[in-house]
Amino acid sequence: MKSFIDFINENADEPKQMHQIGLNRSQLKSLHRHPSFRTYVDSPSYPKVYAKLDKNDGGPGRTRNVILTNSRNRHKMHVAITPHGMILGHSIYSKSDNPHPDAEVQWDHIKSVDGA
């Protein structure tokens, strides 16, 4: 689980399982159906999905900014999602195979998508 510890240490907010961070049912359903979530985060081999709220999170009833990963922690997904479950944009990052020596954790950007 060393790689998951990297996700925990990335900032001060402790991750929780995805359903424990205060997302509503519409938001959870939208994430579970989202193609990038299903490709990079949701995995039969690593079924638990962990999440942290981004430092720019709007709070309950507003647009949520969430960072998601699973216990494999090979990819992470940053997503902005409205209270009605509409995904405003997302970015996918992959853990670098060759991080800079000074970096605790290095993530390589894979893609960003606005509006979906």
Molecular structure report:
It is globular and about 40 Å long. It has 116 residues and is α+β, with helices and mostly antiparallel strands. It is 21% helix and 33% strand. The model has no long low-confidence stretch (mean pLDDT 87). The chain has helices at 2-9, 25-33, 35-41; strands at residues 16-17, 49-53, 64-70, 75-81, 87-95, 107-114. Strand 4 and strand 5 form a beta hairpin.
**How much helix is in the residues?**
10-25%
> What is the averaged pLDDT score?
87
Q: Strands of the biggest beta sheet: in what spatial order?
A: 1-2-3-4-5-6
Largest sheet: 6 strands, antiparallel
- Number of DSSP helices? 3
Tell how many strands the DSSP assignment holds.
6
Rounded Rg: 14 Å
The chain-level structural class is alpha+beta
The sequence of SSEs as H and E is HEHHEEEEE
Molecular shape: globular
How large is the share of residues in beta strands?
25-35%
List low-pLDDT spans.
none
- Distance N to C terminus: 31 Å
